[in-house]
Request: fold
Amino acid sequence: MIRIPTAFAESADRYPCLWMTAALLNAGALPLIFPGAPDGFCFLAPLPLTLIAWGLLGSARTLRVWVLPSLLLALSFLLSAPGDGAALPDRATGAEIRAVMKDPSLCGGMPEWLRNAPNNVLAEVRAFRYTSADEWRTVRERVFVRFPISTALTPGYGDCLHLSGVLEPLRNSESPAAFDFAAYARGKGVARIFTAREGKLLRKGDSLFRHLCDLRGKILESLGGKLGAEERAIASALLFGMKQGIDAEIRSDFLRSGTIHVLCVSGLHIGLFASVLLLILRPLPFAVRWFAVPFPVLLYALSTGMQGPAFRAFVMFAVWAFLKAFHYRTDPMNTIALAAVLLILWNPLSPLDLGFQYSFLCVFFLLLCRDFLNGVRTAAFSRWKYCFSDPGPLRRAGMQFLIFSFGASLAAYLASFAVSMFHQGLFSPYAVPAYLLMAPAAWLCFAVFVCGLLVCWIPGALVLCGVLMAPLLGLIRGISSFFGEEGAFYTSPSPWWCATAFLLLLALLLVCRRREWEAVLSVLLAFCFAGLLLLPRFRTPELLIRHGGGVRPMLIFADPGLARAFVFNVPDYEGAGDAVAWLRSEGIGAVEELFCDSARRESCGGAASFLKMIRVRNLSFGSPVRVNALSARTARKTAAERGMPSEEGVTLPVDVRKNGEETEYRLPHPWNGILVRFRKTAGGEQFALFRDGRESGSFFLPLERDFRWRRLPLAE
Reply:
């Protein structure tokens, strides 16, 4: 019988990079989760697991696969800290900056049909000053730059710009369940946002990466010459991961269908690009072919921005290709761990990135399910063992392809399901069939794309490739739209321990080799899966109130158990986003009624945006919509585009009664018995909530500049 320390020592010799990844996560957990923790505590916290590793592996192995990576991570944290020089102010202020653009999604003006910059452009500030009369102060910090929509600037990667605008610290919305934008920015090393008002180009970038980005723009310009707007946007995201052309409706369809990863350059795209190249280079000798492919794959990965998933996929493919050229074999689990080690050492904050978590967890479970799927294949083929007639190679290959493609897709989906439930609470039941139908079209798009690159010197070749890709891109869009409409729903995000338990049970099921334990683990996994989906349905109804900012209060009535909601006023875009985030966190993906108590902007300024973010069955106003009520008319137009019935001549769903300075609103079915009362006073409004004639809550809504959020239970 193998002793436990011996088994751990053998695993450290076989999977050294896997142990290094565990050491890096152990050393960097506290600085990532609690960035404000004392340095001494962060230094002592990893010691318990380090001592356990020392006892299991011995001194030599612990120093090699645990202590050394931890020291390298500490050095990486020190190098990534802000350097010498003045620091950017921690308050909101007007300022001028000189910044170098570091965002690979920037177009530099090419192609002309694609919006040049994403919403938040990553940039590195080299100098700043408050006014033009001040001296420039040297600084080196990363910020997100937001350009005005009407700007004439078309910056590219590496460009140095002189910008004037407003610099402010990055803050999260205080709304419950709002997107943790601060954590996302911290993963990029960003703590401030600069909203640019005007600027000019000081110096154009001249790096190899900038030339690759310019070449990318020219390729997209030619490919999209004969494509429609939606096909162009999908092509730029599918081929190069540039998603600024994807509108909210397309993004929602891909997200709800569970195929959003198709629009993010990852292992799928690197694998498709490499497979097409290998097929084209098949006439070459074996070693030459495997030596030649990694270089063009590297150029392609760089042209997409070399984000975490693309880097991980390239490292895995390059190691695999070079070892295959030398006729060596390596364990893919060790290769993926090597990619994780390199990424974490390059950017210690990368584990916070959602793409990092999706990418490595999915690939980890894909590799973990190999032996399990081999067992399924053996069991499926066993019925032919004693047959007199052989089924034939075509039938065997088809069944083997079906088992491995469906099984691998299911394993990756279950791994991503846990991450999605933890971060978003989104359940897409048709993700596997949607992906299996979309993958051949995506592969054909890459085949046409790579062939077009090889003959791009022929005039009109890339334009012809775009024409050939048009029906494939339309098919991809159609699949996402069809499955996005079928069955996807939101529920409240799961706690971290629940998602971890699900992943642990899934891993044990894939590595288990005993039938009785497989049955037990399958039952436990099914119960955990059902619990993640059904437990949030037992939450009680609740009212969320948002007030302040000089606009009318927004009321959101939510019943998670019945997945229904009633929204009262959406005064601005930020309120619309916060309302949608909270509704989805409550497991509600559709709103029965959006009611605005007036047609003024302070009541319905964000109604049109709200209608685009979430499904709404009806829109109504408490007062007539006049010609000059632009916000209300825009909301009505958006509602008509989404097939909502017109409210002309229809009785209002809300009973409105006014008596001097007091206004009452009686809610419709199924919110019968709920009455909301507002009483105007000199310093604000007095709010009162009545249920079945009895007061359930009452408080004062002062005239505040900042927004405030309150929650009231609606259950008895």
The longest strand covers residues 190-203. The CA atoms of residues 89 and 629 lie 40 Å apart.
